[in-house]
Design goal:
By secondary structure, this protein is an alpha+beta fold. 43% of the residues lie in helices and 11% in strands. β5 (149-151) and β6 form a beta hairpin.
Length: 228
């Protein structure tokens, strides 16, 4: 099992990622294990698969003062992914520009979801293509989920939803309640006052065609002629 990466190890990973981005040749992406690239941190990162080391003489220019057992280190693809994930988690409290723009638009409403409710909405969005009565398209909710930011102090995910998105959220917690879990539906009803269906969507039903019936009067019977 991989242990949690600590603050100092993240710093070393940042150094390695910077070298990877700045290196114009493969050799420049390798760094000697020394100074800011702490040996103990490198060992932990290598154990987790986030970097790899090789003998320094294989990738670095010869240096008389370097001991023969010296090693060089380079970040792996897994390390770059872990660093990107780390940045996303630590920056999650900062709204993206699209979220901020919608916050100033009265057509959108901010909804704060508990982590479990956010998971429920993600599950609902995954299922949307197969839900026959869903009042919202999957793209609408995916956009809201991508733009959502996490408020660490309140332990809430903050989303911006328009009326269609609210209808989708209400439908999601309604389905969850039918399955026996009513907590999310009851909390969102108390906090925001909406239930399913919300809003009431206009239904388009084809009206039966009307046929104008014309009643033709029978012509009057001819008058009887003279008897011959």
């Amino acid at each position: 099992m991989t242990d949690k990466i600590t603050g100092g190890q993240w710093t070393v990973l940042e150094h390695l990622a910077a070298a990877e981005r700045a290196g114009e040749t493969v050799r420049q992406t390798w760094l000697p294990v020394s100074g800011p690239v702490d040996e103990r941190a490198v060992r932990a990162l290598e154990w987790a698969g986030l970097c790899r080391t090789v003998p320094a003489h294989e990738v670095l220019r010869a240096h008389a003062a370097r001991p023969p057992e010296a090693r060089a280190v380079r970040i792996t693809s897994e390390g770059l992914d872990a660093l990107a994930w780390h940045h996303h988690r630590t920056d999650a409290g900062r709204p993206c520009p699209a979220w901020t723009a919608k916050a100033a638009d009265p057509a959108w409403r901010e909804i704060a979801l508990q982590p479990g409710e956010m998971l429920l909405l993600r599950r609902y969005t995954h299922l949307l293509p197969g839900l026959a009565a869903a009042p919202v398209a999957a793209g609408t909710l995916w956009e809201a989920l991508i733009e959502a930011h996490y408020d660490t102090e309140a332990n809430r995910w903050r989303l911006q939803l328009d009326d269609t998105g609210l209808a989708g959220l209400a439908h999601a917690v309604h389905l969850e309640a039918l399955a026996g879990q009513v907590t999310a539906r009851n909390r969102l009803h108390r906090t925001y006052g909406f239930t399913h269906p919300h809003p009431v969507l206009a239904t388009t039903s084809a009206e039966p065609a009307t046929v104008d019936v014309v009643v033709l009067e029978e012509p009057p019977a001819p008058a009887p002629g003279p008897l011959g």
